[in-house]
Each structure stands twice: as structure tokens, then as C-alpha cells.
Amino acid sequence: MEGTITTTIKLEAKELVRDVDIVILNTLKARFENVCFGRKFITEVLKIVSRGHIFFNRNEFPAQPQCDVVFSHTYITYEQDQPVGLKIFDISSGTVRSSNDHIIAQTPLEAFDEIFKPKVGDYFIALVDVVSYEPFKKITMNVSPYVIHMSYVITRITPGNVSPTLKIATEKCITYVKNVLKNDKYKKILAIFGKTNKSKLKISDYSIFDKPPTVNENSLVAVCSYDHFSKGIYYFGADNVDIFNGYPHAIMSSGEPIESFLYRYAVDIYNFTKIIEFFGEMTDKQFTDNKHVWKLYSD
């Protein structure tokens, strides 16, 4: 996601002999990249949107040059129950501590009972319980191990006008996912999550909004979800128990605009690919050593 921040930064006087905009941009990158600020984690400072004049504070000695700046950036935020990929780096005092490149998380050791026996070096998927964004630090979280559960639901959808904002956001997600899935190094990771999924993910060359499914006031969309990551594998059709292979299912009568339904699908798959990217950094040995965890997701 992208946003802007307005701030005042201090510069080094000796640096002002260089291009001021380059000095300011480098200062912003050094201070704001890969840290939390304003309830989000900034991944990259993009550019200076606008800035004021360089000034000196007369109430300081020695006075440092300062500047008011508006800059654009990309950032990450997390919601409760969102999945994240983590690696365990410490187990002590009844607490399992794990991390990735922008998160520090903790989990009570007993939360892993009857799931898998955790050890330092394990990679696993967790669900966010509580998240905190301390300024200029990594994101801190309390998390729970993610356990796959089978679920089925049919949701009635209603036609709606496609929001331009949702269309752009969804197309960005789809483009990103298509590029990730082309990368050979993720294939062994993706295979773990495909063993029990009867439906295979297919992404068309065209935008999902170029050829949306035809719906009317009597249409139903059946969502066959084997686990959290299978959301978005949809069966369109009438209410028919056969599409669920005899499994129990429920009917929800609430209406939902089709663009928000498709947007959620794109975001779910986007979150999953971010986890796959993190797992893809493992060496072959780490991948093999993690088999006792993969069993949780593949059985």
C-alpha cells in the first residue's frame, strides 16, 4: 500500500554542499525505512512530494539545519486473524519467540500442544492475535499457530458497479500474484498446500473485471473452502449438495456486491503469496528440517 507522511527532519550542515533533495531523501530513507511509524510499517521511502525551505532553530546550540517535508512511501499493516510467515529464534520461559524481516512475535509454548513440537529454526504460519506499532521499531505481535480446518459456505451475491479504486487494487494484487507464481523457487512450497485442495488456482491473462461472472437476483456463488488459503476457489451454481461431495453446508441469505467479493479473494491470495516468498528464502536443509511442521499443512 502507498501513503504520504508530513514531518520535520534535521540535516547535517556539512551535507548541504551536495544536492539538497538527494540529502533529504537519503535522510528520510535512513530514518523511516524498515521501521514502524504512525501504526504502519514503512517498507520503502519513494520520493519527496513537497518540502519547505531549509531553516535553523535559533533556540538550539549548535543549531542544525531543518526542513519540513512531505514524502510518499509504501507500507504494511496487519489485522487480527491475518496469516503471517514466521521463523522461531528462541524458546524460553514458556514462550516461543519468532520473527521475519519486519515482525517480532511471541506465543505461549502451550499453544503448540498437539500441533507440533516447536524448536529453534522452525518456520510456521501464525495468525495475528494482537499487533503493536512502536515508532521506529519492528512490528510486535502476539500470535497463535495457524491450524487448518475444513469449512464450506454458500453466499448469495448481487450485481454491483465496480468501484475504480477496488478495481485498481485488485488488479495490482492479481498482477503481483501472477509474477510470484512464475518463480520456480516457490514451487516446492506451493506443493505443500496443494495436496488436499481439490480445486487448483487458475489466474486468467485478462483482468477478473474484464469478464466477471454473470449474476442476477437469483444467483448463488458457492465458496468451497478447505482452509484459510483456499478462499477464492469458487463454484458458481444453484444450491446443490452435490457440489460439496456430500459434506454438510450452510446457506447465507445476505447480499454482497460482487466487486467486494472479488477484492477479498485477491487480498487473501496476496497475503498467501507473501508467506510463500518468506518460506522461499529457506535453504534446502532448512526445508528438510521443517518437515515436521509441513505435515500440519499437507495432511
Name the features:
alpha+beta; OB fold (Dihydrolipoamide Acetyltransferase, E2P); five-stranded antiparallel beta sheet; five-stranded mixed barrel; 14 strands
**Percentage of residues assigned to helices:** 10-25%
* Structural class computed from helices and strand pairing: alpha+beta
What is the residue-mean pLDDT, rounded to a whole number? 77
Inertia-based shape: globular
Major sheet characteristics:
5 strands, antiparallel
DSSP summary: helix tally: 6
From the alpha carbons, calculate the radius of gyration and give it in angstroms: 23 Å
> How large a portion of the residues is in β-strands, by DSSP E?
25-35%
What is the strand tally?
14
Q: What's the helix-strand series?
A: EHEEEEEEEEEEHHEEEHHH
Total domains: 3
Q: Which regions have little confidence, pLDDT < 50, spanning 5+ residues?
A: 196-208, 226-241
